[in-house]
Amino acid sequence: MSIYLEGMKILVQRRILQEPVDVSTKRWYFKVAGTNNQYEVLIGENGKTSCTCAHGSLYANFLCKHIVAGILLLSGTGMNV
User: Fold this and answer.
1) Beta-carbon neighbour count of residue 53 at 10 Å?
2) Using a CB cutoff of 8 Å and minimum separation of 24, what contacts does 56-62 make?
3) Among 15, 41, 55, 63, who pairs with 30 as Cys (CB 3.0-4.6 Å)?
């Protein structure tokens, strides 16, 4: 399954555990329920992202499914990412 579809699945299953928190201008913080753990996702300006999952921790600015779910949530609310 593609990363996009995995992110959409997280969003549809309502596994984002809190509303996005604007921790500063154009930086959004989420908690996402993963398969086995809860992950922290940060989406910032200029495309900078981070996630505490194994994939997000290993690769800088890697778009894991948790980050994709956050981006999809923000894009659906009309917020500019």
Assistant:
1) 22
2) none
3) 41
